[in-house]
Specification:
Layout: H1 12-15, H2 19-56, H3 64-74, H4 77-99, H5 102-108, H6 112-122, H7 130-148
């Protein structure tokens, strides 16, 4: 009597989604979002610190005149708020450096070049050349390749 052969049920390997690819995407999602937050917070902090420095007359290491600006800076809310934001960036960075691969996290910070160029061109009326945008595009392409590795 002939035997009836039923197809084998699909194995869990065949029906499961590609865990490696989605896991890699998922594992870099949090660091990516934290770095983007750090970049935004850092740019806001630098903007505030710079505004306070410009109003105070600037700062140059080794200049006795700059030492006279320190009391004024210490009382400027923009300098203090900007400094606090930069401390937040430091804390985010410390968390990432201690929990993620540096070879993946540190290059993410280069995405700040995109934001700096956009802010410079749109709000500060700086001239960002095609050559500079090309360089920024190469950096972004490198970060994308890095995240996919």
């Amino acid at each position: 009597m002939p035997t009836l052969h039923l197809p084998d049920p699909p194995s869990s390997e065949a029906t499961a989604p590609d865990v490696h690819a989605s896991g890699a995407d998922r594992s870099m999602r949090r660091p990516f979002l934290l770095v983007m937050a750090a970049i935004a917070i850092g740019l806001a902090g630098l903007y505030l610190v710079r505004a306070a420095l410009v109003d105070a007359g600037g700062f140059r290491l080794g200049s006795s005149a700059s030492l006279g600006h320190l009391p004024r800076l210490a009382g400027d809310w923009r300098f203090l708020a900007g400094g606090a934001l930069l401390v937040v960036v430091l804390l985010i960075s410390l968390e990432l450096y201690g929990s993620e691969e540096l070879s993946k996290v540190v290059p993410l910070y280069s995405l700040s070049y995109v934001l700096v160029a956009l802010i410079g061109q749109l709000f500060l009326h700086e001239r960002v050349t095609v050559q500079r945008w090309t360089g920024i595009a190469v950096i972004v392409a490198g970060v994308v390749m890095l995240l996919r590795s």
